[in-house]
Amino acid sequence: MCCSTVVGKHCSSIMSQRTERRGIHVDQSDLLCKKGCGYYGNAAWQGLCSKCWREEYQRVRQKQIQDDWALAEKLQREEEAAYASSHGVQTQSTTPPQPGHASLGPFSKFEEKKTNEKTRKVTTVKKFFSPSSRTASKKETQEGKTSPSISRHASFDTDQVSKDFVDFLKNLQKPGREIHKQCRVFLVNMSSKKDLGADELSECVQDFYQNLADRLMTHFKGSSESVEQVMDQVEKYIMTRLYKSVFCPETTDDERKDLATQNRIRALHWVTIQMLCVSMDEEIPEVSENVVKAITDIIEMDSKRVPRDKLACITHCSKHIFSAIRITKNEPASADDFLPALIYIVLKANPPRLQSNIQYITRFCNPSRLMTGEDGYYFTNLCCAAAFIEKLDAQSLNLSPEEFERYMSGQASPRCSSAEGEWPHTGPGAGVAATNPVLAQLNHNLEQLSTISSRQEKVMEAAQSLQADLLSWTESVQREVNDILEKYPLTCTVSAIDANNIDNDNLPPPLTPQVFAG
Length: 518
Hints:
This protein has 19 helices and 2 strands. It is mainly α. A two-stranded antiparallel sheet has the order 1-2.
């Protein structure tokens, strides 16, 4: 059983259309665990909370172990029966060896070999499925002490987290040293389990969280607040070091889901705030500012390494959404207002690796954060929003199938249809005033760029025409000059200055050439 089960089974059951307000309605009781324990459920856990999911997972795993044991014993009995039937005569003629004899005969050697094989099979099965596979042996632990540090090539951030963790544990004195030792041993063990699947790695981390939390609860004498503080630091230290190996591992299809979700959101770029019936007026500057902050927070989630930090981004995003709704309505926002707004923000933000981040939080976050509190509530709604986007259709947006297909194919645009008065869902007074101001500014800029582009094309055409005219004029002038030169050739007569010239006598005295004897 994989924890990355299709999320639509849970979220589709908690989302219904409210025809009187054309909105998305969620029954808040359906966000809770389906077993009625009172904690928040998770779509990736088939609507169960972390506690109930682990119990169910353990039950299925124990059943699988029993089935493997039964299969191994069945195969062993069949092989023994086949061997006994094929060597029955030899077995009857051979005298059973007496106790203490050195030689036990070929059949006994075969039995010994089969017993060893059976032991190996059962041990392998038991080792794979039992909790002991997640506990390092003493030899491995000793080797881990002398082996190079796991974070030898870690980044500066990782080193800083380690330093902060050590500083935090110093305040706990002896328990702090024990916690640091346990974390180090756990990291060494995890470094040898890179071949395990994502669910097995998640189980290892969750077991470590549970065991450490139980010990801390005993040490702090039931002070859950102190335990949470320590567990937050432990999670930050552990997951910062494990992030590269457990986030979007190759053994899962998280990357394929990320690409599918991104393409799906890109294809839904035309969905407007009116279609989702979001109670936010982005023409109000404060509302627009909160929307931008919400989009920034949900995008920033991918840059965080620690599950708790990713949850904090979701929480900040959700609070900005609630603020935007409150400012628009001048009253506190309701849960029915929140989910459509969150869907709208996700569509506008198109967060990178959304599915991988959801799965990472689900697998490796401290389970208490997902089961209760505002973090768990907001995360559950984000899972529902992602599931809604995957299943979004014409009925979800109160459109006809023909309209939905035209918008999806790019043949029509809701904004253009609204401006022409063809879209019946905008209502009176909608039009440009009800359009997203950011999109309106974008469209205005695009129109200006289009005008500038057309003017530039005209200028370029005129410049090319002028260049052609200049070339033609130059050639025309050159031809005219050549024609004149051919018609009136120039002849130049050169004579010596001192040569005899009859005209020299007519010159005035200052200009009369004079001859000097050499």
